[in-house]
Amino acid sequence: MDIYILGIESSCDDTSAAVMKNDVLLSNVTANQAVHMAYGGVVPELASRAHQQHIVPVVSEALKQANVDKSRLNAVAFTRGPGLMGSLLVGVSFAKGLARSLDIPLIDVNHLQAHVIANFIKEPNEVVEQPAFPFICLLVSGGNSQIIKVNAYNDMEVLGQTIDDAAGEAIDKCSKVMGLGYPGGPIIDKLARQGNPQAYVFNKPHIEGYDVSFSGLKTSFLYSLRDWVKEDPDFVEHHKNDLAASLEHTVVDMLMDKLRRAVRDTHINQVALAGGVSANNGLRNAFREQAEKYGWKIYIPKFKFTTDNAAMIAITGYLKYLDSDFCSIDLPAYSRVTIK
Ligand code: KG4
User: Fold this and answer.
1) How far, in Å, CA of 16 to CA of 9, rounded?
2) Which of 37, 269, 308, 335 could form an SS bridge with 85, CB 3.0 to 4.6 Å?
C-alpha cells in the first residue's frame, strides 16, 4: 500500500508544505516572507502573522500540485522545533487540527534532523545516490553550525558545533554591517564570486576539538570595516567583492578545518552537507576539493532542499511513519532543542 505524508515547515520565515508518496517527493511549496527585508532580519511577530496568512494556501497548493486529495493522507508530519515559537505554533496547530480532522497520525520532526535527512530526498523518476550509515554531516544554517555523526536517520551524535553564532548568522550580520540586503548569505555568495578571497584577513579563533566560533570573526570584520570606512567613506562600495570573498573564505576555511579533523578521526569517509549555508558556492567548491584530496564520498542536497523546506520534513516523517513513531496531539512545540 502506498503511504502519503504531508510535511509542514514553519520554524522561521518560510511557510512550506510538501507531499511524499512513499519515499518520493510529489510537491514542495514554499511561501517566503518579504516583510522582513525592510528590517534586515526576521521579526518574530511578523513572521508568525505571515505564517497564519500563508499556511492554508500553501498546504492546498502542495496537495493540488501532488494531485493528492487530503483524504488519501496517511499522516501529517510537522516541524516541532527548534525555531521561533510564534512561527512554530502556527505549523504545529495547523498540523494537529488537520490530523485530528482526518483521524490520521501526527508525526513530530526535529528541524535539524530533517536538514540532514534532506540528503535522502528523491523526486519522481530520479535516482539519488544516498549516503549509507554512518556518515558525517556538516550542518550549517542561519541558526546552527554542527558536525554530526549520523548513525541512523533517528540516531545522530553532535561531534562539534559553534559555541556562539551560527555560520549563516555571522555572514548575515557582516552583510548587514556592509549595508547589503537581507538575507546576506546569497548576496555575499554572489559578490564573492567576483572577489579575491585573500584580499583581507579576519580573526580565526582557536577552539578545541570540533567546535567553532564565529563571534570573533564578526567583531573583527566590524572593527576592520569601521577603520577602513574612516579613511574612505566609500570603502564598502569600492571593495565589496573582495570583502565578501575574504569573509566567505574565512568562514569556509574554519568549517572545512573542523570537518577534515572529524572525518580523519572517525575514519568515516562518507560526508554530507546540509542547511541553508550549504547553498553557498564557495563552501560547495571547498567541500568538493577536500573530497578529491582526501578521497571522501560526498553528498550535497539540491539547492532547493538546503534552505528551510517541507520536503525534508515529509521525508523524515515518512521514515518515522515506517517505524510507527507517532506523537500525541498534546505535544508542545519547542524553540530550543538539540539534534536527536
Ligand atoms: O537553513 P536555513 O534556510 O534556515 C535555518 O534553519 O537557519 O538557513 C538560512 C541561512 C541564512 O543565514 C542565509 O543567509 C544562509 O542560510 N544562506 C546562504 C546562502 N543561501 C542561504 N549563506 C551563504 N551562501 C548562500 N548561497
Assistant:
1) 5
2) 335
Residue of 14, 141, 162, 177 best suited for mutating to test ligand 1, as the one with most atoms within 8 Å of CB: 141
Mutate to test the pocket of ligand 1, among 307, 312, 335, 339 (most ligand atoms within 8 A of CB): 307
41 pLDDT tier (thresholds 50, 70, 90): confident
Q: What's the 61 CA to ligand 1 centre distance in angstroms? A: 25
- How many residues make up the chain in this entry? 340
CA of 80 to the centre of ligand 1 (A): 20
Residue 183 CA to ligand 1 center (angstroms) comes to 8
Closest-CA residue to 254 (of 289, 315, 202): 202
Given a cut of 80, whether residue 191 has pLDDT beyond it is yes
Q: Is the pLDDT of residue 184 over 90?
A: yes
Q: Whose CA is nearest to atom 22 of ligand 1?
A: 185
Q: Which H or E run includes 328?
A: none
CA distance 123 to 24: 5
Ligand 1 centroid – CA 290 distance (Å): 22
Q: Which of 175, 144, 103 is nearest to 307 (CA)?
A: 144
* pLDDT of 340 strictly over 90: no
pLDDT at position 46: 94
The minimum-distance atom of ligand 1 relative to the CA of 306 is: 1
Question: Cβ-count burial of 332 within 10 angstroms (0-12 exposed, 13-18 middle, 19+ buried)?
Answer: exposed
- Cα separation, 211 vs 233, whole angstroms: 36
Can you tell me the distance from the alpha carbon of 234 to that of 228, in angstroms, rounded to the nearest whole number? Answer: 9
Among the listed residues 277, 19, 17, 3, the one whose alpha carbon sits nearest the alpha carbon of residue 123: 19
From the CB of 308, is ligand 1 less than 6 Å away? yes
